[in-house]
Design goal:
heterodimer, A: mainly beta, four-stranded antiparallel β-sheet, three-stranded antiparallel β-sheet, B: alpha/beta, FAD/NAD(P)-binding domain, Enolase-like, domain 1, 25 helices, globular
Chain lengths: ~120, ~850
């Protein structure tokens, strides 16, 4: 079952090795679905909601990552809108932005902050 | 006047270029080619690729038939043994005599073997011809260790070849440094460091005094300094010597260090005899590269015409990859010009060395050395060749990029005389003229000028010149595929083919910027797959794939996937049909028959995919690639096996074609159709490739489409046997892969192809670009590397981890909602709240 190792209010959700650079994974954080991404080796990790408000499905973790100008984004696998991984903003439709989560790499694991 | 008789002695790359150039003029001549090797001309520059799996015949540059079609008489394997200048004849080993009006010597060179006692022992070999490769391979069988004598360019290439044969490889060099001709001391040291890092052992400053029988290995090399090295075979690659004996015997003047002496017109001391390539020497210098050889051949041909050109020497700058290490050398790399000053930069951490040599007054570039990173090569070469004034701080060229770094040389800074494409001698001026005359795409530029159709290395610069000229003409263009790559898909293909780049990261680092996106990643992923066909879910490729390719299924509107196994030609046994039904029933998958004669199962969740596919694979199915930009199906009618009207076995052919092209990654999806008679029940004329049986053979149709913008396929060729049919389809598909835009179906591609259907026929059927065998070779690599991606995935635990909705929980997506309709489930609409089924797992 879920191996929540709670240290302060940080929860370990997976190993860093679970994240292949350039791809995302979906993790369960309580009742929420979170998409966690790493762009390249040794670079920062990002976490936003897994729910695509335009396609209306939990699929953002399965999108292609990249950049638009200097923004780091994921493109929804359904209809290709871009979501800013730092702010959750949808570049094509500002009403369709998604929630972001505090995330960090800690002792070889990826941690998300509860209630962040 | 009777025809002038031209006899060409030697059929290497330069001799062949002479013949091709001469045949392309309107001169009324009778050409005879006398080749010493049993093979017609082949590409010696890429010899080592035979050890990477290339077939010797793929190196060939021409064929006997081709020469015949040009009206040329050619004899191979019968070397010329004497020139009789009085009677103006040559005699061959078999005693044949040929009369000439003009004689062209293109005898090339042979590998130099230093006069070491024991050099003729068994397993002491040379590296120069295709036959040599066979001997090296045979000698390397079952042994462990090999030595290359010579640390120059060819020697290192040969060391790479030995490594590829699985030998522990050693390089023994007499001089104190590797590639001493092209590199300065720092560059040579860095090269050594990198090559040693790849497991090749380097011994410099070693003079071999004798070769004797070994104790542990076959041979033992004793060195002048008292040390020794044991080995199973020795390959000499210590430089080349011109084949000039024929000329010597005939009394022609030869140079101090060998080579037939020529003047600026490539004429020898006998005005009816010319010499070109590595057998010739101009000013006591032998030009051992292919490009100068080609220039000599062109100059020699021009002497027979009104417009005479001269060959006054050539630039010996070179850029290459040795054992994967990038090396570049420009002009006066050693700083031998008087007063020359040098800047150098060395980064042992990144293993990069760069140096530039500038003139005394710091205004002109004289030379450069690049090891580990040659991205500045083109810019530096242009500065040197065109004597462009250097910016104030020339060191910026070689320092890692920081604020204020010198920008790469723009096309505008080049003079019109600047050589952009050295394979076909196309200058910037030629390109600008072509643009002014209406060539506004790279495709058109290539067609008109041939620029970047050789090695492809100048594609980026040629495009810059074109864009800049278009801008001047007030034409605005932007064919960049996205903000990360200022290239079209076609240019990206050229880059991949010419540089052999195998990962997206390397492409981005060298030719792009930013982090990539959903456009360039899959596009480049597809190109890499088209040429190297590695498993698409290898770690370095996985992030390039659309979700459909990652999870090997088509994502549906609710985030679940469809499952479509391949049903070749639409033929299926009852047993397999039952398995499909059972699997669909077990996982409650919505089931539908597709237009391509197979069965689509919808609604599979990520975690179910591996179990479903395991069952399908166990029953003998394989992936149908319904998710990929690749071959979908080969639709067929039942044909002559059952039909009263069928004239040939359309099902059998459809199955063969589907098996041949399954898994091939293309710019967009493509479909096949095969009909057994002209009633056309398989609707082949609405497919990218359609085949229809007739009483006299197969008719091939191409570039049809159904869908949004239907297009009837065009008749491409008639009455073909199966072998020819397959050859044409191979070439057609690889040419489409090479030249189409991203997401461009064959129908749109053809409509945009300059020259249209006739051009396509010329390329595929008449081989007008002389790339037919190359295209077939590329297809062969694809077929050889085919794998069922689902089978590979199921056998790989690491990949299977991704087939879960959550990485940290076995829970599934709790937002999925379905309703029943006509006995099957489908995703619920938002307004449907009653009778909703939620999946429980």
């Amino acid at each position: 079952m879920i191996e929540d190792v709670i240290v302060d209010d940080w929860v370990k959700v997976c190993e860093t090795s679970d994240l292949i650079p350039g791809t995302g994974v979906a993790v369960a954080l309580g009742k929420e679905q979170v998409a966690v991404f790493k762009l390249r080796k040794d670079e920062a990790v990002y976490a936003i909601s897994n729910y695509d408000p335009i396609g209306k499905a939990n699929v953002l973790s399965r999108g292609i990552t990249g950049s638009v100008g200097d923004k780091i984004v994921v493109s929804s696998p359904l209809y290709k809108q871009h979501f800013d991984l730092k702010t959750g903003e949808c570049l094509e439709d500002e009403d369709a932005s998604v929630k972001t989560y505090a995330v960090r790499v800690h002792e070889g694991g990826i941690q998300l902050q509860y209630n962040s | 006047m009777s025809k002038q008789r031209i006899v060409v002695v030697g059929n290497g790359m330069v001799g062949h270029h002479y013949v091709e150039t001469l045949a392309a003029t309107d001169l009324d001549v009778e050409i005879t080619v006398l080749g010493g090797e049993t093979r017609p001309a082949y590409d010696r520059v890429h010899l080592s690729e035979v050890f990477d799996g290339k077939k010797p015949e793929e190196l060939s540059m021409t064929t006997r038939e081709h020469y015949k079609s040009l009206g040329i008489t050619a004899h191979f394997g019968d070397p010329v043994t004497a020139i009789n200048r009085d009677s103006k004849t040559v005699t061959t080993e078999l005693g044949r005599t040929f009369v000439y009006d003009k004689l062209i010597m293109a005898t090339g060179s042979y590998a130099f073997v230093p006069p070491i006692p024991g050099k003729d022992a068994k397993h002491c070999l040379t590296y120069r011809t295709i036959d040599d490769l066979g001997e090296i391979k045979a000698s390397a069988k079952g042994v462990k260790k090999g030595v290359v004598v010579g640390g120059g360019l060819l020697g290192l290439e040969c060391a790479n070849a030995l490594q590829n044969l699985g030998l522990e490889s050693h390089v023994v060099e007499f001089a104190p440094a590797l590639m001493g001709v092209q590199l300065d001391e720092g560059g040579s040291k860095m090269l050594r460091r990198k090559i040693e890092g790849l497991g090749v052992h380097i011994h410099t400053g070693k003079a071999t005094s004798e070769i004797v029988e070994g104790d542990e290995h076959r041979l033992r090399m004793n060195f002048a300094d008292g040390e020794h090295l044991e080995t199973d075979l020795i390959v000499f690659s210590a430089g080349i010597r011109p084949y000039d004996q024929l000329a010597r015997d005939a009394g022609l003047e030869v140079g101090e260090r060998g080579g037939i002496v020529i003047d600026y017109h490539c004429r020898t001391t006998d005005s009816d005899i010319y010499a070109v390539g590595e057998c010739a020497t101009l000013g006591n210098f032998i030009y051992g590269l292919v490009a100068p050889g080609y220039r000599m051949a062109e100059a020699a041909v021009s002497q027979l015409t009104e417009e005479k050109v001269s060959f006054a020497g050539a630039d010996m700058s070179t850029k290459l990859k040795l054992l994967g290490v990038e090396v570049g050398s420009v002009g006066d790399a050693h700083g031998r010009t008087e007063g020359a000053q040098c800047y150098s930069y060395c980064d042992e951490n990144a293993e990069v060395y760069k140096s530039i040599v500038v003139s005394k007054d710091n205004t002109k570039l004289l030379g450069a050395v690049l090891v580990g990173d040659t991205s500045e090569y083109d810019t530096l070469l242009q500065y040197m060749l065109n004597e462009i004034d250097l910016p104030e701080s020339p060191e910026a060229f070689i320092l890692p990029s920081v604020e204020g770094a010198a920008p790469a040389l723009g096309a505008d800074a080049l003079p019109d005389s600047a050589m952009v494409c050295s394979c076909y001698a196309v200058t910037k001026g030629d390109l600008c003229n072509a643009v002014q005359e209406g060539a506004h795409t790279m495709g058109a530029i290539k067609e008109v000028t041939s620029a970047s159709t050789g090695c492809g290395g100048c594609a980026a610069l040629a495009k810059q010149v074109m864009d800049s000229e278009l801008l001047k003409l007030g034409v605005e263009v932007n064919n960049d595929i996205c903000e990360h790559f200022a290239h079209t898909r076609q240019e990206l293909v050229d880059i991949v083919r010419s540089t052999k780049i195998k990962t997206f990261d390397e492409m981005l680092e060298k030719h792009g910027k930013g982090h990539g996106c959903e456009i360039c990643k899959p596009t480049i992923g597809s190109i890499l797959a088209s040429y190297w066909n590695e498993y698409v879910l290898k770690e370095e490729h996985i992030a390039l794939q659309d979700t459909n390719d990652i999870f090997l299924g088509n994502m549906q509107k609710d985030g679940t996937y469809s499952v479509v196994p391949r049903v070749q030609g639409g033929e299926i046994t009852p047993e397999k049909l039952i398995v499909l039904g059972e699997v669909a029933k077990e996982f409650d998958l919505y089931t539908k028959i597709t237009g391509g004669q197979r069965i689509d199962l919808f609604g599979a969740q990520l975690h179910e995919l591996p179990t479903i596919w395991q069952k399908l694979i166990d029953a003998g199915f394989e992936t149908g690639h319904a998710y990929g930009k690749s071959l979908r199906t080969a639709k067929s009618c039942v044909g002559s096996t059952w039909c009263r009207y069928g004239v040939d076995d359309s099902v059998g052919l459809a199955i063969n074609l589907e098996n041949r092209y399954k898994g091939l990654r293309t710019p967009h999806k493509f479909k096949l159709g095969v009909s057994g008679c002209t009633r056309e029940c398989a609707e082949a004329q609405s497919k990218d490739i359609g085949v229809i049986a007739t009483e006299t053979g197969w008719n091939l149709y191409v570039c049809g489409n159904g869908g949004m913008r239907p297009r009837h396929a065009d008749l491409f060729a008639s009455d073909l046997d199966e072998k020819t049919l397959v050859k044409y389809i191979d070439r057609f598909l690889m040419f489409y892969i090479r030249t189409a835009d991203r997401l461009q179906r064959t129908s749109v591609w053809l409509e945009n192809l300059e020259g249209g259907l006739d051009y396509l026929k010329a390329v595929v059927i008449d081989d007008s670009l002389n790339i037919g065998s190359e295209l077939e070779g590329e297809m062969a690599i694809n077929i050889e590397n085919y794998q069922c991606e689902w089978k590979t995935t199921i056998d790989n635990d690491e990949r299977l981890k991704r087939f879960n909705h959550f990485i940290n929980s076995p829970e599934t997506d709790n937002s999925l909602r379905y309703v029943k309709e006509r006995g099957q489930r489908r995703p619920a609409r938002e307004d449907e709240s009653e009778d909703v089924i939620r999946l429980v797992s």
